[in-house]
Sequence to fold (269 residues):
Amino acid sequence: MYFDYVVKRYQAFPNLIWDISKEALAYGREDMTYISERINRLRKLAGHSRLLTVHDYTYCNAFPGKVDFISIQNWRPNIYDIMLNVKHKHPDKPIFNIEHGGYEKSIHQIFRGAYDDAVACLDRNYQCAFAGSYSTYYWQNTSWYEVIYEPQELPKENQPKMAYYKNMAGLFTAFDFNLLVPDISISNTACLTDHERVYLFYIPRDMIALQGDFGELKDKNVKIKWFDPFTGQFHGNEVLSFDDGTWKTFSIDPDISSPFCIAVLEIIN
Fold:
């Protein structure tokens, strides 16, 4: 009765996503048969076609047809490789890292996870994105049980770095994320591309240059610019010709303030 009440009460809200189990399989409180029964029951009750997932990759991996997108919770350091493997395994479904271990610190410690530094958390979100998947931003005082409703009233050093994620959304609006696919064969780092017009390269901390054999750009004129995740600004606007070979090295623009950045190559003709 309670389950039915929740579905009927909340299903009309437009920002709702159904997450059936949270981490219940990990705690031994239910099994996959029970989750499938709950999903079937919800599908019959719900009339607004809200997205549905299960906060458990074991279930999503076993029953991808039962969910609208694949959820995984993974905190490992090699997050890009893990998410890329999941993307390859489920190419016809959106992939969502529902918790990647990054929980940006606040004035109170609620749950530290594996990473609480704002830059480290942001970096993990970009790594998920460059694997062709979606990710989550947690600030510890907008999650769990102790919520600060007006974080802008806090001292500047204690405020969440939400602007970083506005910048990230701006990047993937300017270069439509839905049209890009991951490709690790082009250079010495992760790439998102439409294989027609644009190539985005993730430049991790301590990498001094982007280099590789950019064969798809042979005989093309290409504009290169650098995106700063901290500011949301692009730097540089150099146009290069690829008619003299496809092996290239690009040094990072000196105006980048973030310890990692994004290189953008656009074909202009």
